[in-house]
Design brief:
alpha+beta
């Protein structure tokens, strides 16, 4: 992985919500990437049917799509989600891991357009699909933490 892609991947997995959820980047290239999320009992939103809460897929796809948007630009850029549409296609089995891939399908100097999909059994049976626009706002970096 190129240095800036490694930096982006490291920063993403070190985000507090990514650590808490156990999100893992399995691949990050310039303009594409993949993540996975192991199942956890805390993710169950419907205990009677053992379905994972759909917000878990939303978080996975938003995080991955944002990382891919950052990776599109040489050297990486910080991005903000302008718009994100997620179609939840089927219930999520709470006993199975969740996988996702995303890719940039268009970009200009200020905005990257990303599509992503999540699945549990095979990529050809998606459980959710995402389309998002991400605005760039400078070299990739996180805001410094405010003193406590």
């Amino acid at each position: 992985m190129q240095d800036y892609l490694t930096e982006i991947a490291t920063i993403i997995v070190d985000l507090p919500h990514c650590k808490r959820l156990g999100l893992k980047i399995t691949r990050l290239g310039q303009g594409s990437g993949a993540m996975e999320l192991p199942p956890q009992a805390d993710f169950i939103g419907n205990t009677k049917r053992q379905f994972m809460h759909s917000a878990i897929a939303t978080t996975l796809l938003d995080t991955l799509c944002g990382g891919v948007a950052s990776s599109v630009y040489d050297g990486g850029r910080t991005v903000a989600t302008l718009d994100l549409r997620i179609d939840h296609l089927t219930p999520l089995d709470g006993s199975k891991p969740l996988f996702a891939e995303a890719e940039c399908f268009h970009r200009n100097e200020d905005v990257a357009y990303i599509q992503g999909w999540a699945w549990q059994d095979t990529p050809d049976k998606p459980v959710a699909k995402a389309t998002g626009t991400f605005m760039t706002n400078g070299k990739f970096q996180l805001q410094p933490k405010a003193p406590s």
